[in-house]
Input
Amino acid sequence: MGDIMENNENQLSKRLTSKAKKMLRAKSHEIKPVVWIGKEGVDKVIEEVKRQLKDRGLIKVKIRKTVLIHVDKKEIAEKLAKETDSEIVSIVGHVITLFRPREGWKSYSSKKVKKEKEKEEKYITEFERLRKGKS
Output
C-alpha cells in the first residue's frame, strides 16, 4: 500500500520536465507574490491559491517568517501543490512558485512521443501562450 502511494506522489511531482521548469522559472522572475501565508497556516489560503492558479497558471506564494517557526517551507510547498493539483517550479527564500496549466494536465501527463522536436515545440508554444497571457 505504501509503495502505491509513493508511486502516485512521484508521478504527480514529475509532470514537468527540467527544461519546462527552467522556462517557467525564467518567466516567474517578473511576477510578484499574489498569496501570502500567515500565522493561520496553509489551510486558510488553499482556496485562494486554487483561484489564482485558475486565473493565472503561474503564481508565487510568499511565506511569512512566523509560519516557518512551526512548519518547513518544503512541507508547505508540497501540501499546496498536492491540494491545488499544481507543480512546484521553485522554492527560493520564502517564496514558492507554483504552476498549473489552465487547460489541465492531460497534455503533460500523456505518454511522450520519442520525437524530441515535437516535445520542445509543445513547451515553447505553452511558454509563449503564457507569456502573451500575462502581457
The chain has one domain: 14-134. Confidence is low (pLDDT under 50) at residues 1-13.
